[in-house]
């Protein structure tokens, strides 16, 4: 056999990539700077001020940097420090050529870092610190008052992101005289705004996953018409879309009757994550990078009282800033009788308000890895358990629930290790129909030509009265295990074997039939080991017969990419996963390919690899399409706080282009949970399986996360 049982219980997590980075801070009489491997992170040329640089907690990639007036804006420093997650790395420089006293709130916050600065009051000189939140191992440097200089060099082992995120810079320049004017740049290129009088509120909308600017506008927030125009802009944005705001008054007499922003406008800006907007008064400078639909206080935000200090907020537009890094579904679903290693959520299927959730490795009192499938119904905003499906003839390790498909009142469930009389692991498909609101077994499908270890039922798909069933280890005429697909037709209430698909040029170990998808007269079959890269075969039905119509093998594939490991088909769109595709030097990062049916053939329109992928994350392990929505699972994707927990990326179709939408993680997901191993999508309902997650102390019991798109 070429594939082991469903969920490798001792799945080896890939070793994190690591290297040594050099983080430096340096300060003199004239300037202070923070650099990472000789890359400038932040710089000020002021005798009084502070620089704070914050880094991602997993990759140590720069996240943001800000320059503030230490004499007036220390409360902003406190807010930023309080928002840090455990293990986040920071670099901080505070300098003043005259004696200053830090606020009690600032001292209390720095006390949690065990900083020696809190014992100096008043403070004069330069202070530098490099450290991680939650760690008492800090590196500090304190200058003499006379020299105003300090330096720290720290070499440390890290998990580098190896990603060049776009850098958004919001800066208030005082080049216009006594009052600052806002400037916004992306990768050092100015973002230009249409020159309009009295519109000091600058707004840039950017894609939350790629950081690409989508639109930019200027507004007068005290003009009712302009305020309404801004609210309408925010209303049109999808949930999770990124937005950067910059507001500063260039002339003291401008808007002389205006003070705070209106309450309706404040509420709209608070829906982007702002907490400081309600404190804004004319003459102040306010910067924010937020996301639509997040809670107040979650945005990166600074509000400056001083009008003379050159305020700066520099943000690396990493997807980890997105509000969707942690998914808060309305409920968690567990198997009604969960046990360790059941792998609940390892396979999912959904149609309408009915969902199938499998525990493919569930044991019975007599046998191991028998498998069970649970039927849930969506009612009044909640998924409710209805029924367990588990045929009585299941014997030694059949893995019932390895594959599933549901359409209307028809269910097909694969048990790809099921025996057939004296033949072991031939595989089987169990058919269920709905009678009087309950599901009853109606058939057991096992074609007569099955051989031992064919693994019939490894994949299944239904469309109307046609079903495709994969047997990735099926023998060809030369008794080579190339794989095959069986086509069934639902006639007079029973499934009847109609055709066997097995292209003649298949070779041993191709795994043809590992993945299948069908829609109307089109079908896709993955052979993810064919010719070392993987191939997807397209079939078209003509006069009731399915014929091979096209073979897809992109020219940019490399050996081991596993192209065709997963496939999804909907209307004129085809989505293919290559879960082991490289991303630069990162092995096993994964990728997906979007195809569209045009001019009587399937044409590639996009290849997608998220910018935040790490090695061995397996983006493309699972894929699903429904209308203009798509989901892609990376069952070893990483969250902000922990690597290899699993993640799901969502996409929306805009014309012929698929745009990234959200990235989802499970609540409190841990390494090895495999969030996104299985996914299901119907209309706006989402199901995400995390089959290796622990449930109340039972490891590998599994969780299913439901939600809305």
Spatial order of strands in the largest sheet: 8-7-6-4-5-18-10-11-12
What overall form do the CA principal axes indicate? elongated
How many extended strands? 45
* Average pLDDT: 85
- Uncertain spans: 1-19, 250-257
What is the count of DSSP helices, taking H or I runs of 4+ residues?
A: 4
Rg: 29 Å
Amount of beta strand: 35-45%
The major pleated sheet works out as: 9 strands, antiparallel
Question: How far is the N terminus from the C terminus?
Answer: 38 Å
| Helix/strand structural class | mainly beta
Blueprint (SSEs and pairs):
Blueprint: E1 19-27, E2 32-36, E3 39-44, E4 49-55, E5 62-68, H1 74-82, E6 89-100, H2 104-111, E7 123-132, E8 139-142, E9 150-158, E10 167-173, E11 181-186, E12 189-190, E13 201-206, E14 213-219, H3 224-236, E15 242-248, H4 263-270, E16 285-291, E17 300-304, E18 312-316, E19 347-351, E20 354-359, E21 372-379, E22 382-389, E23 400-407, E24 410-415, E25 428-435, E26 438-445, E27 456-463, E28 466-471, E29 484-491, E30 494-501, E31 512-519, E32 522-527, E33 535-542, E34 545-552, E35 563-570, E36 573-578, E37 591-598, E38 601-608, E39 619-626, E40 629-634, E41 647-654, E42 657-664, E43 678-682, E44 685-690, E45 703-708
Antiparallel strand pairs: 1-2, 1-9, 2-3, 4-5, 4-6, 5-18, 6-7, 7-8, 10-11, 10-18, 11-12, 13-14, 13-15, 15-16, 16-17, 19-20, 20-21, 21-22, 23-24, 24-25, 25-26, 27-28, 28-29, 29-30, 31-32, 32-33, 33-34, 35-36, 36-37, 37-38, 39-40, 40-41, 41-42, 43-44, 44-45
Helix pairs in contact: 1-2
